[in-house]
TrEMBL record:
Keyword Acyltransferase: no
Name used for this protein in its record: EmrB/QacA subfamily drug resistance transporter
Species of provenance: Actinomadura namibiensis
PROSITE patterns: MFS (PS50850)
An annotated Gene Ontology molecular function: transmembrane transporter activity
Keywords attached to this entry: Cell membrane, Membrane, Transmembrane, Transmembrane helix, Transport
Keyword Transmembrane assigned: yes
Single GO cellular component term: plasma membrane
InterPro entries: MFS (IPR011701), MFS_dom (IPR020846), MFS_trans_sf (IPR036259)
Domain Major facilitator superfamily (MFS) profile: 16-466
Bilayer topology annotation: Multi-pass membrane protein
Transmembrane region(s): 14-40, 52-70, 82-101, 107-129, 141-159, 171-191, 203-223, 229-251, 272-296, 302-325, 337-354, 366-386, 398-422, 442-462
Length: 482
């Protein structure tokens, strides 16, 4: 039987944050850990080269397409219920991935993983916002959550190589079983069992179909464009279909009695501005992670494990900044100023990468850019606080789902577009090491342009939230505790 002090600790907000971070770590870790195991999966299950990409795409489509719906459902049925159910679905699907005996089984299980990941991820940020209402504590909590994402993405590449080489590709999925089981058990103990608003407050079935189909069509358009071509009839048709479905969804929300996404959420310039800035920032940063890994392996001839290890300084820098520095700077200077400073550091890193030589060295040519990437540890916590500041308590789940959706779309769009641009440049120059390097530098340059656009929007659109006066609630006030 636990002591009173142990029971109190298990129910503390900071332990609840640790549980939410653990669940997020498992989901983010899975996204990067699987990419390292793809060659072994292809050899064992007999995937075709084109079919193998759907091991990633099946997950992305389900995850990106369901985030907004899952966030709103979390508001309606209870965020803890949605989180625990999502973790359970993700964990069970991970086991099915590990025992997959045919390609179609793995693809179905990866889609199910995406469903569970969306359910858990969509409400996590909203729960953090409602748990931590004091600005300083909220900034520290968001910093820890941002660090979890960066660490999971970086550690996953190293861990994936080790597990695949020593135990087999199946274990990149089995590793989720103990993490998921512990996260579920502690979530039931540490998180408040909120009842939600009830389905009658927002059970817009038509809106759910439109937004899910629209976002899934959009993500599918992005992930297949690299092979079909951005100007192909297929890509343009799918893109037009996605836009039409999302436009119909917005029109539906303006007239529905119980909207899935109350349009009042988008009236806040901080909400729509932060989501747009996040898309630009993540498009630049996710493509950076892929392009720099390709540069190290294809130009510098690093091994997969060496490449993963070389990316660790960026994760350490992001972690140190987000956990130690960001909250103090936000408390002193405000979210917008800290966001701008973080974006400036990220832009400086991209400018350094524009001069990458074919005979580059890690210490001189890569490490400075890795360390400057610690600017993400400033930018992401500040941007998250701004993006959630305009949402009411009852809309925290849908605002969290929206924020996660734009994060996934921005990352997917950036990776697909900038890697395609880099590959096209390389092919045009003949496919040599110099041509590869030229293609990667072009991708870094376009990423820099995206960060400049994010900087301009940060200054022109965003406003540092003012604390709400007691008994009042403003559009730009922090979300009160639920």
């Amino acid at each position: 039987m636990s002591s009173p002090s142990t029971s109190s600790w298990l129910r503390s907000r900071w332990f609840a944050l640790a549980v939410l971070c653990a669940g997020s770590l498992m989901i983010i870790l899975d996204g990067s850990i699987v990419t390292v195991a793809l060659p072994a999966i292809q050899a064992d299950l007999g995937f075709s080269p084109s079919g193998l990409s759907w091991t990633v795409n099946a997950y992305l489509i389900a995850f990106g397409g369901l985030l907004l719906l899952a966030g709103r459902l979390g508001d309606l049925v209870g965020r803890r219920r949605m989180l625990v159910t999502g973790l359970a679905v993700f964990t069970a699907a991970s086991v099915l991935c590990g025992v997959a005996w045919e390609p179609w089984v793995l693809l179905a299980a990866r889609f199910a993983q995406g469903v569970g990941g969306a359910m858990a991820s969509a409400v996590s940020l909203g729960m953090i916002i409602t748990l931590f209402t004091e600005p300083g504590e909220r900034a520290r909590a968001i910093g820890a959550f941002a660090f979890t994402g960066a660490a999971g993405a970086s550690v996953g590449q190293v861990l994936g190589g080790v597990l695949t080489d020593t135990l087999g590709w199946n274990w990149v999925f089995y590793i989720n079983l103990p993490i998921g089981a512990l996260a579920i058990a502690f979530a039931l103990v540490s998180l408040e069992n909120d009842r939600g608003l009830g389905l009658r407050r927002g059970a817009d079935a038509l809106g759910a179909v439109l937004v899910t189909a629209g976002v899934m069509a959009g993500v599918y358009t992005i992930v297949q464009a690299e092979h079909a071509g951005w100007a192909s009839a297929r890509t343009l048709t799918l893109g037009a279909l996605s836009v039409a479905l999302l436009a119909a969804f917005v029109a539906r929300q303006a007239t529905a009695a119980t909207p899935l996404l109350p349009l009042r959420v988008l009236r806040s310039r901080n909400v729509w501005g932060a989501n747009l800035i996040q898309m630009l920032m993540l498009a630049a940063l996710m493509s950076f992670q892929i392009l720099i890994a390709l540069y190290m392996q294809n130009v510098l001839k690093y091994s997969a494990s060496a490449t993963g290890s070389a990316l660790l300084p960026a994760a350490v820098a992001i972690g140190a900044v987000s956990l130690v520095v960001s909250a103090r700077l936000i408390a002193r200077f405000g979210e917008r100023a800290v966001l701008v400073a973080g974006l400036v550091l990220l832009l400086a890193a991209r400018l350094l990468l524009l001069r990458l030589p074919v005979e580059g060295t890690f210490l001189v040519d890569l490490l400075p850019a890795m360390l400057l990437s610690g600017g993400f540890g400033l930018a992401m916590p500040a941007l998250t606080g701004l993006g959630m500041s305009g949402a009411r308590a009852e809309d925290a789940g849908v605002a969290s789902g929206l924020f996660n959706t734009t994060q996934q779309i921005g990352g997917a769009l950036g990776v697909a577009a900038l890697t395609t641009v880099a590959a096209t440049r390389t092919e045009a120059l003949g496919g040599t090491a110099e041509a590869l390097n030229s293609g990667y530098r072009l991708g870094f340059g376009i990423g820099g342009i995206l960060l400049v656009a994010a900087l301009v929007l940060s200054v022109a659109v965003l406003r540092t939230p003012r604390p709400a006066r007691r008994g009042t609630e403003t559009a730009e006030a922090p979300v009160p505790a639920a």
